[in-house]
Amino acid sequence: MNFENCYFLIPARKGSKGLRFKNRKLFDNTAKTIPVELANKVYVSTDDFVIENKAKEYGFNLVSRPADLANDTASLKDVLLHFVDERNIKPAKTIIFLFLTYPERTWEDIVKIYDFFKSKRANSLVCAEKVIDHPYLCLYELEDSRGKMMIEHDLYRRQDYPDCFRATMFVGCFKSDIIKNLSDLLIEEETIFYKMDINKIDVDYAEDYNELIST
């Protein structure tokens, strides 16, 4: 697989509400999956000196993330745009986005998804996983134990519900010049979705991490 026109970007800020120092705990899981010969193509966007030191051990490049892109409200779109601007990434280059919160991801997963992205000649890709609860069964929670349907319909048979999936950032692939067109969910009108065979652990809270280390 040729990654000549690619960059790998790992977002790894210091803060985390759900699990303290989550990215520090998970960094090695992702770092170890990337072949040594591609280390010079990996960039770590961080505000954490511990993660900086870890990245250096693997031979990765560092992108110093400013404080306004390292808080709870910063969008990942802005993190991508900052990387493109900071490193003067040329148009039509592919950025492969690797969240640390998917420690089960393998190099084979990355290659397979990137190959799918290339075969479709796409500009943006996000992964898709099966939904546990169909949105037709979901309601907004209201006061006094009441609720309002999120999607108005009168279908009571599950087989009449339309097929749907949940977007997931297991792996993201984005052409550098279309990032400005993405929503904050990193999706645009022409985004394609890679359907996952099984849902993977997305570590956000302590119970997710405990599930990971217990397997």
Over the alpha carbons, how many angstroms does the gyration radius reach?
19 Å
Number of strands: 9
Number of helices: 5
The unreliable regions are none
CATH class wording of the largest domain:
Alpha Beta
Kindly report the average pLDDT value: 92
Spatial order of the strands forming the largest sheet = 3-2-1-4-8-5-9
- Given helix and strand content, the structural type is alpha/beta
Proportion of strand residues:
15-25%
Largest sheet: 7 strands, mixed
Q: Architecture of the largest domain, CATH level 2? A: Alpha-Beta Complex
What oligomeric state do the depicted chains represent? single chain
CATH topology annotation of the largest domain: Spore Coat Polysaccharide Biosynthesis Protein SpsA, Chain A
- Terminal Cα span: 31 Å
Within CATH, the superfamily of the largest domain carries the name Spore Coat Polysaccharide Biosynthesis Protein SpsA, Chain A
Number of domains: 2
What level of helicity do the residues show?
Answer: 10-25%
The topology string of helices and strands comes to EHEHEHEHEEEEEH
Rough outline? globular
